[in-house]
Amino acid sequence: MNYELIIFYLFASVLVAAAISVVTVRNPVYAALFLILAFFSSSAIWIMLEAEFLGVVLILVYVGAVMVLFLFVIMMLDINIDILREGFIRYLPVGLLVAVAVAAEMIFVLTSDTIKTVVAPARHAADYSNTEALGEILYTDYVYPFEIAAVVLVVAIIAAIVLTHRKRDPSTKSQNISHQVRVKSSDRLRIIKMDAETKTSNKVGE
Amino acid sequence: MDSVMNFALATPEMFLLAATCFILLLDVFLGEKCRTIGYIAALGALLTTVFLVVSSYGADKTEAFNGMFVSDNMSVVLKTSVLLIVMGIFVYARPYLIDRKIFKGEFYSLSLFATLGMLIMISANTMLVIYLGLELLSLSLYALVAFRRDDGRGSEAAMKYFVLGAIASGMLLYGMSILYGLSGSIDLKGVASYVASQDIMSNLVLLFGLTFIIVGLGFKFGVAPFHMWVPDVYQGSPTPITMFLGSAPKLAAFAMTMRLLVSGMEFGSMGWQQMLIPLAVLSLVVGNIAAIAQTNIKRMLAYSTISHMGFVLLGILGASEPGYSAAMFYVITYAITALGGFAIIIILSHSGVEAENLDDLRGLNDRHPWYAFMMLLFMFSMAGVPPLVGFYAKLAILQSVVQAGFVWLAVLAVVMSVVGAFYYLRAVKLMYFDKPIQDELLRMGTGFNALLTTNGFLVIALGLFPGFLMALCVEAIRVSL
Question: Could you say which of 3.30.420.10, 3.40.50.720, 1.20.120.1200, 3.40.640.10 is the CATH number of the domain covering A1-85?
Fold first, then answer.
């Protein structure tokens, strides 16, 4: 077993353990943190596969942006774990049966002889740049899927706005900056001319 | 022709994208009163795209964008059908949307994006583009199902659809990644040449990848045993969205199946044939028998869709050209018939209440004989009564199944169709022989009525003269393979 393989198994076992923890821990904040750990380990594996750019992007985008939002949402929401776990025991036997069947089949296939005939791609030279290679093909060979992916993102934005944007309730009190700036002294203080009050008027109530 | 940078081939897609973005922006500047302008613009965009698509008919199979995009007769016929069906949906949906105060520009922009996704799927030539087109379609549909966001059942349906759709996409992607790992190519031609060099029945990993792809396709088609989402989503969505879900995406799913299984793995047909047989049998049995027990008309039509998709799979699993063209004919004509069926539900749920139960059909003949007659045509066509188009479509499928040597499958399909005829005829009985429960007037606009009548006559005309459309399908399959 060489040095590289040891590192691979290290990261892979951390990844599997973290992924299992994501679905088993009770506290959603811990689950999110374990997901971050899973992302870190998988990005390490990607870097070992010579996909440095993707590994870095995974950390920047998922850990840096998406997971922060995730944690933010989890802390904002008051999640009742008991309701989420309702019916867990009831569905466990069926779920377990399906999971075991699928896992057994996958182990059977993935340890069979045919998988060993799959040839691993050749290793690149030390001066190979993954970022450069991606940059070269992304806007040339792969321009069509790239543009479609952009359209998919636009649809995601539209869908999010359609489903969440609501007209503001008119009774809600809010600041209107332009009104605040345009305010004049006459809007704040009104000077009224009136006759002087005499003392007799105070005695009305007596 | 230079296939590397042949952008002009994708003109319909590019035009539709530009037009959709324009309609999206137009909607921002139009007030509540001028929504009709957006509606007309959407119809205009679709019609122009139809002309752009049709103008490329008859050319040889050509590729663009470095082999990622393919244009052939199959793509032209399917794209034209999808675009015309979406136009029909827009016309049918309008009164419902206005009535429910959801006549918004977003309905049109999301539907147009979904249509664009279908066009992309139909013309996809690599697994990557198939997947991206599918996601574009599905994402728009998830949002459309949840369009009435204050409606609890709509949100529930959208959640179910989203979660199951995401699982299905995951399955499909996993299968694709295994195929990519084996063949070293995301290109369907590369996959095809790899599969041709292998014996699929002894290559366990290839079968493994194929299984995941079939599971993903099964979910998207909505065939048993991956049909659980279909009735719930059909029932929970607003009726025009149900109409959308039940018609046009089936054409895209057919194209996706043809590209993945036939263009990509034709030499592995031994493998997928045996996987499709149980799916088709289960769909026919589950769809037809479960539909009998339904009292909700949308759920009934959902189960009916499941059984019809079983028929489409019967055509594909023969792995022969007559079978493929029969399946293509079936899926196009089914979409036309389903469109009309859902239009009747829209009419019935016109005045505020949601028509959902079979009882709402009671005495339709007394309330409006013409609508009742149209519904009769759609129901008879789905049941497969001659001379309507459903009969000819079923006949073509059965012929191809018998030719492929699966006589028992053909017998089962006939028996199940007879079982299925029960619930279609029950709907007809309710309309003609029962007394109406409500007696308010049913009235729709001229455009709606004209389209419904055309739709009904199309079901008769295609049944009496199926030759033209059938010839188109046969030619499309012959040139595309």
Answer: 1.20.120.1200
